[in-house]
Every structure is written in structure tokens, then in C-alpha cells.
Amino acid sequence: MKLYYSPGSCALAPHIVMAELNMMYELEAVNLKDKTCASGDFYKINMKGSVPALKMDNGDILTEGAIISQYLADQKNEGTVLAKFGTADRFRTLEWMNFIATDIHKNFAPLFSADHTYKSTEAQNEVKAVYTKALTDKFNFLAEKLGQNDYLTGNQFTIADAYLFTCLTWTKYVGMELSNWANLNTFVKRVSQRPAVMRAMKEEGLIK
Ligand SMILES: N[C@@H](CCC(=O)N[C@@H](CS)C(=O)NCC(=O)O)C(=O)O
After folding, report:
1. N or C: fewer beta carbons within 10 Å in the chain?
2. Which of the listed residues 3, 10, 41, 104 should we mutate to test ligand 1's pocket, taking the one with most ligand atoms within 8 A of CB?
């Protein structure tokens, strides 16, 4: 299997999942600016031009991070990072995955793109204020739901924690202070100390 990624992007989430499951995998970095990678034109691998993309063992490409993580978990079917098919715990994790994909991940995008999307500083600041407020509301909810639990669904680290962790690492790039949410701050510190997370971050050059 090969994961196409860009360092620190949302592809870090399935990367963490592969490391957590101790899978055999290769990595290939993608330059998201010009859509190139060592194999050449990244659009030929993923027409959407976005990471993550997973080349599965049969050579087919699977895209959409939330689905790649489910696919990876089911390859091992250990019931750890994702509970087994048909269980209530599995749906609880998938509920979080959808929330993170649609309400967290995608609310960061305009914060990253505002400066090169809008000409006037006023418009840039307005967009940033709207999406910072949207994320603030979601972070308030997350901090309350996380409570004193180690992870989103309790004490078991799941694919949803890998995804949430990845998104929360972006707060430092968009001027959001994670220490305003003690539970989220502790969560990020806890996850960042997991050996598989450290391995994935090292492989992406994010830490030494
Ligand atoms: N719907 C995709 C979106 C992935 C996505 O937003 N990837 C970003 C990096 S975090 C990206 O590749 N952006 C560059 C682009 O789309 O051109 C998914 O959930 O996997």
C-alpha cells in the first residue's frame, strides 16, 4: 500500500492509522501547489488533486481521508481503532468521523485560503472572523463532549482521534489558541505522545 500525502495535511490521519495498526506501507509526498509527486502528475493518480490518496495492494486508488481510515482499519479488523462491523461503538466512531470531516476539517480551509482568495484585507479578515467563530463553537462542543475522557469515544484511541488530532494541529497556523480549551489541549498532548503518532509525524518530517 502507498499513501500519497503532504506533510502535516489531513493525510496525517490515515498515516497515523497505518502506524497504529503496524501495517506495511510506503509513502509518497505530493506538492499540492503544482500537483506533482515522485510518480509525476498527481492528477493522474487522483483527479481531485487532493491528498490523501491510497494506492491499495491491487493498484486501485482510494480517496477521501475518512473512508481511507475506515478501509485501513477493516484490513486488520482488530476492532481497536474502529469497532467491528455492526456494533454500536463503530457507529459512534463514524459519527465523529463525519463531524470532523464536515464541521472541523472543512471550516479550516477558508482560514488557510483567505489571503490568496480575497483581494482586500477587509474581506480576508471578515472571512477569517466567520470561520474562526464557527470553529470556536465546534471546539466548545468538542471540549465538553471530550470531558475527562482520554479519547472521543472513551478510553480507546480510534480513527476519529487520529483525524481530530490532525485538524487540531492546524490551530497554530491560523492564530487560534488551543490552550483556551484545556481538554483539547490535553488531548493533543496525549495523542502526540503515542508511539505510532510520533512515528507518523517523524516520517512526515514534522518532528525530529
Ligand atoms: N474531501 C477530501 C478533502 C481532502 C483535502 O482537503 N485535502 C487537502 C489537504 S488537508 C488538499 O489536498 N488540498 C489541496 C487541494 O485540494 O487542492 C478528503 O476529505 O479527503
Report:
1. C
2. 10
